[in-house]
Every structure is written in C-alpha cells, then in structure tokens.
Amino acid sequence: MISRSLARALLASVALAASIVLAGCDTDQVSLATNAKANQPVPPKLLAAMVEKNMDLQSPILVRLFKQEAELEVWKQTRNGQFALLKTYPICRWSGDLGPKVREGDRQAPEGFYSINPGQMNPQSAYYLSFNTGYPNAFDKALGRSGSQLMVHGDCSSRGCYAMTDEQIAEIYSLGRESFFGGQKAFQLQAYPFKMTPVNMAKHRNNPNMAFWKMIKEGYDHFEVTRQEPKVDFCEKKYVFDAAKPADAKRDPVFDASAKCPAYVIPEEIASAVREKQQQDEAAYAKLVAKGTPMARMNTGIDGGMNKIFAAKIPEGSTGLSEGAEGTTLQMLAMSKAPGTIPGHVNPPKPNLDAVATAPQEEPVVAVGAPAANTRVAAAQPAEKSQGGGFFSNLGRKMGMGTADTSATTPPPQATASVAPAATSTTPPTAASRLKAAVTRFVPGHDKSKDAAKDAPKPAVAAAKPAEPAKPDTRLAATRPALKPSVSDGAGEAAQMMGAAPVVSSNSFESRFGAVK
C-alpha cells in the first residue's frame, strides 16, 4: 500500500513540474521548476513519513526556526486540517546573537513571523538553493530596522542567515515547491531565539530582548494550542495574532504597523486556550525563578551557533550560542552520520575579538606559582613578605597583631580571598604579611616593585645552593581563553570578521530569476 502511494506521489510530482515548464504561463512556478537542483523530487523516505502521518504531498507547510536549539522544523498540514511535525533539521550554522535583526550588517539572523511566497524561492542561489525570509516585515519597518537578502540556504555558511547543508536545503526547498504546486500562496516562517518554554524564559529573564520575545511568544502559543497557522497582523508597532472583526462590524479590520490598532477580537475558542496555556507557563516560570534557576550568561562576543551534530564533526568544533550535547559528548556524536555534506570552508562559532575587547571585564583570580617560591598566589598582584621593621609590620603591631614572626589565628577576610597556600607550602603566611597584602592596594603611591624585590621566601632549612632570584611575572591579564584556530585559514581572509562566511557581492542574487524574464 505504501509503495503504491509513493510511486503515485513521485509520478504526480514529476508530471506536474513538466506540465508547468511546458505551459510557461506562471513565472513564479516556472522559476521553481526550470532549475535542475530546484526540481529534485521529494525523497522517498519523506514521502513514506507523509503517508504514515496522513499528509498529502502538496498540502501546506509551515517552518519554525530555533537559534538556541539550532533546529529547523517543517510542519505539514494533515488531512484533518491541523499541522503536524514532519521533520526536524539540525541547523549547520547561524550567525549573530540571540535577538532580532536590527540593522544592515549586524550579522543578526532575523526573529519573528515572515511569509514566503513563490517569488522568494531562489533556484539560482550562490549557496546551492535558498529562499528569502522576507525580512524586514511590516513590524521591522515600523521600527526602522534595515537589512536585505536574509536567507535560509545551503553551504553551511552564514552572515546573518540560517545555513543548512546542500542536501538539507534541497529537501526543504522541494517541500516548499510542492506546497506551492498544491495551491498554497505562501508558507509561514516563524523564527525564535529558543523554544518558548518556561525553563528557557526563566533562563533568559535578564535579557534586554525579553519584551520582544514575550510578544512573539503569543504567536508561538497560538500555534501550540491550535496547530493552525496563526494569522499575523501589525499595529502600534506590535504583533497581533488571529485578529477577527467584531460581531457588529461590517468589514474586516484594516491594520497598519505604525498606526493605531483598529477594533478587533480574537475568537474565544482560541483566546481561552491561549490564556490557559499562558497561565500554566507563568506558574511554572514563577516556580523556576523562586527556586533560583540560573540566568543564562549574556553573549560575550561569540558569533552565532551550530547544531551539536555538526560541531562534533569539525576540528575544534563548537556549538557556540546553541546548546551543547546534553548527556552526549561531541566525541560520541562524531560517530554518527552527518545530515549532509559539511564544506571544508565552514567556520565554527568563535568569539568576536572586537566585541570581547569592548565588553566589560571582570578581574580574574588565577592561581599562579611564583618561581623559587614555596607558596602559590591567587591574586592579581604578587604577595609581599613583611619585614620586621617595615611600615606594615609596625602597623600590624599597632593593631595588636604581634610581630612579623607571629602567625595570626584569624586572618583578615581580604587575606583569605587573595592568598591560597599550595600543596608544597611549608611555612604559613604571617599576620603582617596578610595585612600587608590586604592594605597595599589602598596605599596611594606605594611602589610595589621595591617590595617585590624583598619577597623571595627564605628556605626553612639550609639549601645546597642559594635560591635563584625571582623572575618577572609573565601572567596574562586576559579573561578569555585562547582563540581556537579557524577551520579554513586562507590568504586574503585577514580582514574578515571572526566566524564570518565569505563575502558575496551585493548583486549576487539579482539574477536569480533571470531565466523567467
């Protein structure tokens, strides 16, 4: 039964594409069908999944994207009219940060709700195949946001796009093409920073984009409770979902993203289901916050993310801002099969040096062993040994802490925070030395270089030869780890931003529909 259905579906797809090419009357459909890459049939495995899930080959689709999870979901309408998940594709590469795109050149992949029509499908893409997300939409334009040519494409290379492998985009493209052949005018693209769960909302509650995320979560919730594509409108520079005309209205409301919202209602069956879900989510969120769920660390300059399945197969690979492998190491994932060909020029996520350099820095506390010393110091400056008749020794005696030879039984808090004995330490630090280390930073004009010369510890027993003089402190003051090397370092790439894909000329997409003119 399944094999006969697959055969009929394949024959119908090929026959329809051929008839459209011969007719040549619909330029959008011709652009979809006249390119060999763009006309690849839907794989038999996907056709079998459609049969199993009660879907037709040419029924409507809907796409959802998640940055943190680095996943692209294709949903397809079943014969009962609701959408069901057909397949989840790991995203090979996305760039930027969690949050919406704001301006041209910010490397951000867009977030929000977008509509993809046949004219946005690009069979002549420089990145194998692609479709334009439609950014900026009316909401973006109302806020003055800018950007262009934001795509979902192949080649696993991103400068503000969502990049898949060539094999993945061929499948996704074929599903979109078939939905258009079946009569769908446009399919909806929903792009999110992460799955809008209470756990993720709690983890990111300190993010400045939270107000925007709560707004698009409304549309996420509409889809979750109805399994229907939410109707999207814009007014007063905000999203409105599933708006309908009031019972006494004679015509549908007219929306303008920059204007005041017209009178509208949300059907009660949808509104009540959404309210119930949101109440449950808010209760779960409050519990998570009350028990101290840790907040996600803000981006420190890492450029985008990559699904763990791809990161596991790239030398020095990293998931970046996407989630790592929970319960599964990258080494274990490296044994599995990759969902497509990973090009040799792919750049895994890595820190953006400019962003890191301008980010606020915290003073590091790093344990470092001093040459020819019996202790290890965990302070930003060298510990200083007190001298019997020095300033700090006298100050210690005035404060009732004894002489330099007397050990303090209760060290000051500052001393315990800045001095950590090593396993090889034989002589505990004295009270005066602890006090000196704690006070030195508050003494203006104090020349620490003179004290450093006096700091070489005396051996507990006579040594065979005198200790070597202390060498200069060569510790690094940087707070970030050493950068990982790029997978593909080539000549002429020195001026390219870290994590950036090769720059394509701005007119590289202008001829994508040249075959249909």
UniProtKB/TrEMBL annotation:
Residues 1-23 form the signal peptide. Residues 403-432, 458-467 have a biased composition (Low complexity). It comes from the Bacteria. Pathway: Cell wall biogenesis; peptidoglycan biosynthesis. Residues 446-457 have a biased composition (Basic and acidic residues). The keyword Signal applies. PROSITE patterns: LD_TPASE (PS52029), PROKAR_LIPOPROTEIN (PS51257). The keyword Signal applies. This is L,D-TPase catalytic domain-containing protein. Keywords: Cell shape, Cell wall biogenesis/degradation, Peptidoglycan synthesis, Signal, Transferase. Belongs to the YkuD family.
